[in-house]
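Chapter summary example: a protein plus zinc ion.
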Amino acid sequence: MSTQFVCRNQSCGQPWELSDVVIKNEGQGLLFRCPLCGARNYVERFEDDEGNVLYEQIEGRPLQ
Ligand SMILES: [Zn+2]
């Protein structure tokens, strides 16, 4: 099962697979920039029981 994201920019709303985006930390937590509109979309990193890294999109910004 692949992780799927939806751009939070309401006028964009483009769905993306994990393989479509680059997840990085620009100093305010992990995020990807929408390849279409450039909007910041924040994500949280998880590991499952087998050590596979998963990312889940979160609302707004992470609390830090
Ligand atoms: Zn977008």
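Key point: The mean pLDDT is 91.
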